[in-house]
Amino acid sequence: MKPFAYVVATSLEEALEALSQSWPNAELIAGGQSLLLRMKERTCAPSLLVSISGLDHLGGWRYLNDGTLEIGATTTYDVLQSAGLRGQHCLIAEVAGDIADISVRNIGTIGGSLWEADPHFEMPVLAVTLGAEVVLASSSHTRLVPAAEFLQWRSTGARAAEIITALRFPPLESPDYGCAFAKWRYRQFDVPLVSVGCAIRRRKDDRIQDIVIVVGGAHESPKRAAAAERSLIGVVPSSDMIASAARNVGTEVAPRVKSGTWPLEYKRQLLEVLTARAVSQAWSRATGGRA
Amino acid sequence: MRDLSIQINGHWYDACVDERTLLLEFIRDVANLTGTHNGCMEARCGCCAVLVDGKVIKSCNVLALQVAGASVTTVEGLAPKRLVDFQQVTTQSMAGVYRPLSVLGIDKEGLHPLQVAFHEHGALQCGFCTPGMLMVLSDYLKRNPAPTPGDIRKALSGNLCRCTGYQKIVDAALDAARQLREGAAAGSASVPSGKWLESH
Lengths: 291, 200
Hints:
The structure holds two protein chains of two kinds.
Chain A: E1 5-8, H1 12-21, E2 26-29, H2 35-40, E3 48-51, E4 61-63, E5 69-72, H3 77-81, H4 90-96, H5 102-105, H6 110-116, H7 122-129, E6 133-137, E7 142-146, H8 147-155, E8 163-169, E9 177-184, E10 194-202, E11 208-216, E12 223-224, H9 226-232, H10 239-252, H11 264-286
Parallel strand pairs in A: 1-3, 2-3
Antiparallel strand pairs in A: 4-5, 5-8, 6-7, 6-8, 9-10, 10-11, 11-12
Chain B: E1 2-8, E2 11-17, H1 23-30, E3 49-52, E4 55-58, E5 71-73, H2 91-94, H3 101-104, H4 113-121, H5 130-143, H6 149-155, H7 167-186
Helix pairs in contact in B: 4-7
């Protein structure tokens, strides 16, 4: 690691102040599980680290009046996995409980994984699937950015003197809504090679009204498979239909991000299998287990 | 350089350290507690696992500054008893101790049930990964007192052992879980307080 100064922020204002003064050579640290790995490899060498893990109001989760779930940026996966979330929000707990290993879940934070925007990470894919928004604070204003847009911006390496303060997930309590997440990794604690998130809204006549399929690990940021989504709207998804849509996803979002030495063709095949899995499970949840 | 205090196994350690000091380095070089092992330095092998405020983390991937003021438990703090009086715990110095307690003629009082089970099942060969295994399991068994073998394997996924093939570690963990459950049911304090011994 290259030498750096370390500041413990006692308020969001203080953190933003410290961040902007040393911009662009400052980094925020909460759990530091990704940041420290990069610093040890010297692929990133900030001159200042601003610790935000002590800021109480950035941790924890709560429901707003309209049913929106707000998760503070420094909430750890461990807190999320045992959080009593409502309706289909429990997928967030399910995914959080299966990220890396216990030691990482105890300290790694949801805000950190979004800011890191690694194409392989699970939480960015899930955030896009569930239509989450990122709450960004800077010294002058606070803004809400859709997770998809934020990740696309971050994945290019772009930065601004802003702090993710929270993620907002829209209410997902309706019984006609189902979502699922599928991923594949070589070892339990690895990041997945590819992952697929799927969210389905069911019509009254038991057909798909709306569907979102998001692929992680293939492109630089989570990618929606728009054409495959369109092919499933208005249909009763039989296993044949799901299989054919999954093949389309493999072509439409052809993997182009290398993961270690794995061939891209291997990732494409994984993608098809995982898509089929995620779509069938999401549909099963949207129909309350009837299908 | 920064002044910093961390409580390790009940003792406060104060030092002026470089900002880059990892918790692992603080434990080994400042507190001189060498039971926490430096395996990979990239949060893969789990040999450096310690509890911070009761939760297990990998100390090679956390800055000492991040846990300033926190309470850390290392493998030395798991139980008060020492089988042999070591100044520096090394793989060499431990070699004769990796046997069932009955063979060593030592009773299990004062040891953590996990330590007893690891002895009974021969759940280690070189012993390098054992401190990490013990710390992760001590956290995990508190959350899931009745695990299946699959649960244990999943819980230990971030801890690498290159000797045992894991089977004996899983056996030991299941045995320890049973001991802990029975201890809890009997209401006895089968888990030692974990207080660090002055004498050591």
